[in-house]
Amino acid sequence: MNRRLKSRIGKTALWIATFLLMLVICIPGLWVVLSAFRPNSEILAKPAIWIPRDLTLDNFAQIFGFGQEQVAIPVLSYFTNSMVIALTSTAIAVLIGMSGGYAFARFRFLGKNSLFLGLMLSRAVPGIALSLPVFMIWSKLGLIDTKMGIIIVYVAINVPFTIWLIDGFFRQIPKEMNESAQVDGCTRWQAFWKIEFPLARSGIASAGVFAFLTSWNEYALVSQLSRSTDSKTLPVGLMDFTSQFTINWAGMCAMAFIIIVPALILTFLVQKHLIAGLTFGGVKG
Amino acid sequence: MRWRAEKNTPWLLLSPAILTILFVVAIPLLFSFYTSLTPYKLTRPETINNFIGLRNYERLFDDAKFWWAFGRTILFLAIALNVEFILGLGIALLINKITWGQRTLRTIMMFPMMFSPILVGFQFKFIFNDHIGILNNALQGLGIMDDSIAWLVDKPLGMFSIIFAEVWMSTSVFAILLLAGLFAMPRDPLEAAKVDGCNPWQVFRHITLPFIMPFAFIAMTIRSLDVARAYDIVDVMTGGGPAGRTEVLWTLIARVGYDNAKMGQANAMAYVSTLLSILFTYYFFTKLVAARRYMGGAE
């Protein structure tokens, strides 16, 4: 009797703890999302209005430049820049990461471990510290405020982690599969495309998602390397709002919503592979 | 001939990666080191040729602002990482116990990890705002207090709010990886320990914890690669202010380098922060390699 009671209390406590945890994780994001659909006057109201009275799409119309009230922030071009920069740098980083990851997974060579460590450490350089010399060099090369300049930087910050993940995925595929394909008359190159690549494909895709999100979310570097609508991305654009005299909270929330959505969808799609990639690639050598 | 080809292949495959890193990270860092030995100012380009040795670094030693920012950064990282580890462990153990809806919970847990730091900062700037923030509104609505608390302005509270945002964003890295460790754990030793009469704490301390430690090191390594992302959070929440109360190393670098245009001085600071990050990553990476070897997975 006593024991059953104890286990019931334990179970209830477990559920309460989980509920609170989920509340803390979800409420901040949900509040921003909700505020994106509310008029600014309602957000600013004192005493606070808890239950939204009217939900509108005005904030979105506003920041995209439709509707009566206009915001002087060109969100549409920031969005396009973000997409172009993130997609291009991801594609290049994945290609480089595949070739590098394959080299680490399948070959033995002198200085392998130190090279791997060196690549990892290059990723550890703080963005803002790296931005200083890159800013100076890019101004000499005329790469400041160009999409190209930012893409190059993003490829470099994504390559180490992409290599780490892809290396882990290739290691899970037995070497013998490639070897037997070669015995059957494939070249090494064919064996790679026909055997190993299809098996590692989902892992490579998740490495790509990671790279995309890193580029999509990056702020420290792009905030210094971009100047105008030619290359500014959404995270830098979000800061445009703070330089205005009064903060347009509703507009900022709407913009935040636009930044969140792709991240949420991608995370949801590949979460299983992400976890596998992080742990397996890391532990099982 | 074939042997020779084999020998060159990995380098050929790695050359794009190496070239990119050289061009975007290694060479700029060398240039940055040179610049830190000059009094280079953006407004006076010719100053880059003026070599002054280590004077910028010497100046850092006497710079109270720098030491405050340095200390604050260390304190910030120490608190944030420890809290993240402990909370992450707690959350992993909690979710591991739950049998229903585990997968959904895990997915929800991943979301903060994927949020842009700039968004996390904005979101908490919105929540902690003294006029319209949901936190003050809730506290006032519930009648707990009448006047508003200036979460982002007050001296210890500003730093607290920033640490809260950082912990919110990054605890999931620990939770997810430790949970993966718990899932991968073999059942037999646990059963055996129970049969032998170990209490739950002993089982946890001597069996569970050692098994999931490598996963903790992976989490630490991943975290150490991007601790500097906290710059984004600080920049959007307080910008290092008010009156430098929340100034960390990274915001100070940006202020000195870009706002004051003192590139030489800023590069010296950047070098200190880079070395700090690299040492930190190196430490956890070696721990990770050791843990790997212990698990028998390494080559």
Terminal-residue CA separation of chain A: 49 Å
Largest interface: A-B, 90 and 99 residues
**How much helix, percentage-wise, in residues of chain A?**
over 70%
Tell me what the CATH architecture of the largest domain in chain A is: Orthogonal Bundle
CATH fold label of the largest domain in chain A: MetI-like fold
The secondary structure category of chain A is mainly alpha
- Number of helix segments of chain A? 12
Using only CA atoms, what is the Rg of chain A? 24 Å
CATH class of the largest domain in chain A: Mainly Alpha
The percentage of residues in β strands of chain B lies in under 5%
Point out poorly predicted stretches of chain B.
none
Question: Can you tag this structure with a few keywords?
Answer:
heterodimer; A: 285 residues; mainly alpha; MetI-like fold; 2 domains; B: mainly alpha; 75% helix; globular
List the helices and strands and how they pair.
The complex is a heterodimer of chains A (285) and B (299).
Chain A: H1 2-36, H2 40-44, H3 58-63, H4 75-106, H5 112-124, H6 127-141, H7 147-171, H8 175-183, H9 188-217, H10 220-225, H11 234-240, H12 249-283
Helix pairs in contact in A: 1-12, 4-7, 4-9, 5-7, 7-9, 7-12, 8-9, 9-12
Chain B: H1 2-35, H2 55-62, H3 64-97, H4 102-114, H5 117-128, H6 134-141, H7 155-184, H8 188-195, H9 200-225, H10 230-237, H11 249-259, H12 263-294
Helix pairs in contact in B: 1-12, 3-7, 4-7, 5-7, 5-10, 7-9, 8-9, 9-12, 11-12
